[in-house]
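Tokens in:
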């Protein structure tokens, strides 16, 4: 056994890698209500650190969606600095979301030395510093919008997401959520278009909801994400170069016991993992992240956490912040958190289900069916328009969750397929069928009661719709759940698309309704008529069956629904005429920004797959073949010994094993050579589109072949000669 694998297992056996130095010490020492949001510059905190006039102006700006004036920003900066330094902060940073998929930050000290040598410097934060900073835009992905000769970019304060204090080993820092734009104003991040899409949804949803309630002033998108992840021991992680460099295992034969017994899901949380969970939850709660749910997921070593719903922009900031906290906290416990969509073959991958809805400023959920959904025209309006939006822009939705990692997960037996469909459930499906013919109607809707006739066990009321885990976009009672989003993804991209397509659809809906009203039609009749037309056009997108089945793939073809299984073919939807028209009509992106994002996403795919391919070839050459050679040498010696003493039958069996070993090793050498050649050939494409397609259709299949041969070897070679930690160790050892 290789030293690094042996030492990792030895550390685990001794318990030296399990001594987490977390804050919680296995228990929450306070009530959640006592610590929640204590490190957030919230409205409650602002009341203590801002003047009454400044505080009221901030409240008005938030409520009225208006800009904050410079004088107000100056007062906020002073109050924010005072609060942060009272908490022990020495630095501040703009915290933004470049197109890398992660977050970015550059720390600056509050302290400003005095130019007068007789005067002492002081801590300060000005409005100019709070509002605007200047990162180098050419060093981030920009799709050609910025280059080294035109490098200026700006990060700009986003007052709609609260600032917070983060304490790390590097000190205590004030984080200011921000957007990131170029010198010429183009968005270079995920947050800028997200905010624009949210505002467009606000405008067009508010106009539509006023058909039913003229008092509504605004509408916000809400989001509740569910974060799935794997936990592995850090020593074993470090012994796997593929995990270290790519986030997933490029080799690994399946274990005899995986998830087939279904005993891990909702099982007892391992003590070490629960200690880790409590530790990251404690920090998250102090930062106002309402993460209140934790449990084992289906695969061994897989877990999930989830928060309460929040306003969409804040929810996404909280998800990105939590992912960072989870990774930092894991290291304190001698663990590693894996967010890759498919870190292990043969067991479930990880998603980040995005539960999306719309609510009025007064908190009324516009996707809540109420007690009589069949007669609830307001609900049906937003419900049907969302289905219509998904149908019109299904390929764009698919593109919004496309990535090298998610390609491994979509369509597998635990994830929704790459075919975008909508699950409504049987009751709502029946309501829609009747609505197409008769419009709103009174349907006798009884909530069924299940009485188990067991003493002391109360009767329960069942929901009006089942859950469908195989649908990429199911309706789950009072929200839509975009289940196809990958666990490593920044939710901003998919939520920008969802906000935008629904906003555009509501805009077109209002235009169609107003046109009918202008011709003398009654308002309700106009609304019903347009919705009936939409349902007839979009009914093909509704599917309430098993999305995993081969029959559905065939049925989807008959319905004319696309099934784009790789990222390069999916991403084309970003630059389709309908996408460009939709985004530019709303002002979420201009055409240059759309093409830039397309180029960035293609480049990311190419680079990720190339890194994986190079690591695969390296591991085959330096880990798998040397260990196999060692074992092959032993087997050849055994064969010679058997022949020398005349045990011919045993020698024949030994010869067969030697031949099998040699064949597998020879296959690995040949495939590795071809893989290296194709890594070079792929870059000979005329543009990034051709290069990406070559990596998808040539390089990845060779990686799969290489893995198949290596995994076969793993099941033959002596365990002591195998250098890489095995799945049974990575998935089961805690």
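Residues out:
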């Amino acid at each position: 056994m290789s030293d690094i694998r042996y030492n990792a297992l030895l550390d685990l056996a001794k318990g030296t890698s399990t001594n987490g130095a977390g804050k919680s010490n296995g228990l929450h020492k306070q009530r959640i209500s006592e610590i929640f949001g204590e490190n957030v510059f919230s409205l409650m905190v602002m009341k203590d650190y801002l003047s009454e006039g400044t505080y009221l102006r901030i409240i008005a700006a938030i409520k009225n969606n208006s800009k904050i004036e410079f004088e107000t920003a100056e007062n906020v900066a002073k109050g924010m600095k005072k609060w942060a330094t009272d908490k022990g902060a020495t630095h501040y940073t703009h915290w933004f979301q470049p197109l890398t998929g992660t977050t970015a930050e550059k720390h600056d000290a509050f302290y400003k030395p005095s130019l007068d040598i007789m005067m002492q410097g002081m801590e300060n934060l000005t409005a100019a510093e709070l509002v605007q900073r200047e990162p180098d835009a050419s060093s981030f992905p920009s799709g050609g919008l910025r280059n080294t000769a035109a490098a200026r970019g700006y990060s700009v304060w986003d007052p709609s997401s609260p600032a917070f204090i983060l304490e790390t080993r590097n000190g205590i820092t004030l984080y200011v959520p921000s957007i990131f734009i170029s010198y010429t104003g183009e968005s270079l991040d995920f947050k800028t278009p997200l905010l624009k899409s949210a505002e467009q949804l606000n405008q067009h949803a508010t106009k539509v909801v006023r058909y039913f309630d003229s008092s509504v002033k605004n509408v916000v998108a809400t989001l509740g994400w569910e974060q799935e992840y794997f936990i592995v021991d850090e020593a074993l992680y470090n012994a796997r170069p593929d995990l270290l460099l790519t986030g997933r295992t490029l080799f690994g034969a399946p274990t005899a016991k995986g998830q087939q017994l279904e005993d891990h899901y909702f099982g007892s949380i391992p003590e070490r993992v629960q200690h880790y969970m409590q530790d990251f939850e404690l920090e998250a709660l102090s930062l106002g992240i309402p993460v209140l749910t934790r449990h084992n997921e289906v695969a061994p070593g897989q877990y999930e956490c989830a928060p309460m719903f929040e306003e969409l922009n804040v929810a996404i900031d909280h998800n990105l912040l939590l992912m960072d906290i989870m990774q930092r906290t894991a290291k304190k416990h001698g663990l590693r958190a894996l967010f890759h969509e498919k870190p292990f073959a043969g067991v479930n991958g990880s998603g980040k289900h995005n539960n999306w809805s719309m609510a009025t400023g007064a908190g009324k959920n516009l996707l809540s069916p109420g007690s009589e959904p069949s007669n609830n025209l307001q609900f049906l309006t937003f419900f049907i328009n969302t289905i219509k939006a998904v149908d019109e822009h299904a390929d764009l939705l698919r593109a919004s969750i496309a990535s090298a990692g998610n390609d491994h997960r979509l369509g597998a037996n635990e994830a929704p397929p790459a075919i975008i469909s909508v699950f409504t459930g049987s009751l709502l499906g029946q309501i829609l069928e009747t609505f197409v013919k008769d419009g709103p109607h009174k349907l006798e809707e009884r909530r069924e009661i299940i009485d188990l006739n067991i003493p002391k066990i109360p009767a329960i009321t069942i929901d009006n719709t089942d859950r469908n885990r195989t649908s990429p976009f199911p309706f789950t009672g009072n929200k839509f759940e975009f289940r196809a989003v990958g666990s490593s993804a920044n939710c901003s991209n998919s939520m920008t698309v969802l906000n935008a397509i629904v906003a555009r659809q509501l805009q077109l809906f209002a235009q169609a309704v107003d046109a009918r009203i202008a011709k003398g039609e009654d308002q309700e009749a106009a609304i019903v008529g347009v919705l009936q037309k939409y349902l007839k056009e979009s009914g093909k997108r509704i599917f309430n069956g098993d999305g995993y089945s081969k029959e559905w793939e065939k049925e989807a073809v008959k319905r004319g629904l696309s099934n784009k299984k790789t990222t390069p073919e999916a991403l084309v939807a970003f630059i389709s005429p309908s996408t460009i028209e939709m985004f530019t009509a709303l002002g979420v992106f201009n055409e240059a920004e759309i093409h830039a994002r397309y180029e960035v996403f293609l480049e990311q795919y190419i680079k990720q797959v190339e890194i994986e391919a190079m690591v695969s070839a390296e591991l085959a050459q330096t880990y798998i073949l040397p260990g196999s050679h060692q074992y092959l040498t032993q087997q050849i010696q055994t064969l010679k010994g058997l022949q020398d003493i005349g045990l011919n039958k045993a020698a024949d069996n030994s010869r067969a094993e030697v031949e099998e070993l040699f064949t597998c090793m020879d296959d690995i050498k040949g495939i590795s050579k071809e893989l290296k050649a194709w890594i070079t050939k792929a870059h000979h494409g005329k543009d990034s589109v051709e290069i990406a397609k070559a990596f998808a259709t040539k390089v990845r299949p060779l990686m799969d072949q290489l893995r198949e041969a290596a995994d076969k070897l793993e099941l033959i070679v002596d365990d002591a000669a195998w250098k890489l930690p095995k799945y049974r160790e990575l998935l089961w050892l805690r």
